[in-house]
Write a structure and sequence with these properties.
It is built from 2 helices and 20 strands. By secondary structure, it is α+β, with helices and mostly antiparallel strands. The N terminus is likely disordered.
Length: 370
Amino acid sequence: METCKKHLTKQGTVLKQNGFSLIELMISMVIGLIIIIGVVEVVSSSRRAFQNNEEISFIQENARFAVDIMSRELRMAGYFGCAMSQTSVANTVNNTADEFISATGVEGYEGDAGTDTFPAAFSEYVTDNTDVILIRRASTEEEFLLKEQNLQTKELTIWGAHEFEAGTPLVIADTNCQFTGLFTHVGGAGSTIGYNVSSNNCSDVLKGKFSCEDCDGATCPNTLSASPYQSGARIMPYLANAYFVGESDMLPGLPALKRQTLTVDDGKPVTRTEELAIGVEDLEIIYGVDTNNDRKIDEYRKANEMDIDGSGAIDEQDWRDVLAIKIDLVFRSQAELFPVVQTVTLNGVEYNDKYMRQAISSIIKLRNEG
């Protein structure tokens, strides 16, 4: 039989097999292209939204962490067992580790004035035109009670056992908050802490009101050499941390909040740099001060304007007039998020780029200064 290449309908009508016309094909392609563009746009929008949310979370998490850690430490600034305004301090530490060891609870450095006056420990790491704050205090997490002080052997015996390595800066505060001593542990383990004159200690007298700049050995003025600390006095590690903004070591090219912290190396107090939060681009600080001794904030000043008493120099007493501190931080996204350049002014600085930014401000009242 001959194969028929035609198709018959039920009525027997012959039909031909036809394809799509050119117009139909073009219409189909256009419809398909529109669908693809729509899908791509949805995916792209979702990706941008996800990236924006990731960066917002990145900024907010770092902001919470940075403000929290600085606020907690600022509240404790100047705590050495007692509020500094209530006690006489004998600072016997000869090696100040680039000005980190001092009886001044808080001390600031104004970025707009340049970094020439900044301590050498961190001056080269600070971003231009950003401020620095140095906070000093005693640790409340590792505290020992004095059992006995031996003036002849220059040793403190404590209840319990310590693990302080030689050279660790320590604070001793008597029970009635009249006297506080700063010194470095020179040796002794377990329940014994030594404090005799050494390369780190200029004096073996821990009671009085003086610093190593005033004395040599046991000849310090304003000392109470024959008066030991009584049982129950507290002994604590001395802490000093400087907060500043610099380039990140973890992600080069990004700014970060950093901390220069006091530590011990080879029996001497030294400092090291720690990175706390990535994306912190600016730190501005002003200080709420009492200018008339009524224990109320009269005005806010920058660090280079802190000559409260008009002596011509900014000294320890000027910093003790600080009652509160206002910190202003600017946080930046890791990647460029905006399709076009944005112009925004934060903390007096104008930014022109595609990064997302957020400014955070906080005022912290000092508990132990003033």
